[in-house]
Amino acid sequence: KQEVTQIPAALSVPEGENLVLNCSFTDSAIYNLQWFRQDPGKGLTSLLLIQSSQREQTSGRLNASLDKSSGRSTLYIAASQPGDSATYLCAGYYSGGSNYKLTFGKGTLLTVNP
Amino acid sequence: ETGVTQSPTHLIKTRGQQVTLRCSSQSGHNTVSWYQQALGQGPQFIFQYYREEENGRGNFPPRFSGLQFPNYSSELNVNALELDDSALYLCASSLELSTDTQYFGPGTRLTVL
Fold first, then answer.
1. Under a CB-based contact definition with an 8 Å cutoff, are residues A59 and A46 in contact?
2. N or C end of chain B, less CB within 10 A?
3. B110 touching A (Cβ < 8 Å)
């Protein structure tokens, strides 16, 4: 069964702190892994997509890594800002025959305090 | 902005009714997927359409159905609404059947009373 788990469920940090969000997945047959941001009551904004052949991706203050052998991905946020406050979701792409579906974790609710 | 739009933004229905949710994909995107996100949970895959044909389905009953049209729009229909159908419904479009980025719309918040 394909399951994605995110730890911690919630995180509160002071502004300026570097932080790491964790994501683990049970099925190593994952293709790619994508990190999203979700603001309250809103849709999903794609942050980073890590191809299965890659080990990490970087965008600005964000860096995501993927280790398929251990079933883990991390999202590193440098110099956090209050505007980073949101729920962060990781999702793995799995093949269901001819379709590629995303299997999501429940997310980590991040609060960055000024 | 992802270029994916959904309507309506919010909807309130009563148990037993039927509802249609709409999504407009990015132009040229042949694949649309629908997800249900209950409060405090991650999105769950409902089904995917590719070039107007259903191309995979998650663990949802047949009363959840969909359509995809040639103009890159699509619909999610839910019959015989139940209280547990209350959720945020998200559509996501992508260029082809692949593991490229899926672009999500803002969602439709459905409340079933």
1. no
2. N
3. no
pLDDT confidence bin for A97, thresholds 50/70/90:
low
pLDDT tens column, B11-47 = 999 999 999 999 999 888 889 999 999 998 999 999 9
Distance (Å) of CA A41 to CA B81, B83, B93, B110: 21, 19, 20, 12
Helix (H), strand (E) at residue A49: strand A44-50
Binary contact (A100, B43; C-beta < 8 A): no
Of A51, A99, A106, the CB nearest to B48: A99
Does B17 contact A at CB distance below 8 Å? no
Nearest to A101, CA basis, from B85, B33, B105, B61: B33
CA distance B49 to chain A (A): 9
> Rounded to a whole number, what is the distance in Å from the CA of B98 to chain A's nearest CA?
6
Query: Which of B 77-96 lie inside 8 A of A, CB atoms?
Result: 88, 90, 92
Summarize pLDDT for A22-34 with one digit per residue, the tens.
999 987 778 889 9
For residue B45, list its beta bridge partners. Answer: B35
Least Cα distance to A66 among A82, A50, A81 occurs for A50
Among candidate residues A89, A100, A90, the one with its CA nearest the CA of residue A29: A100
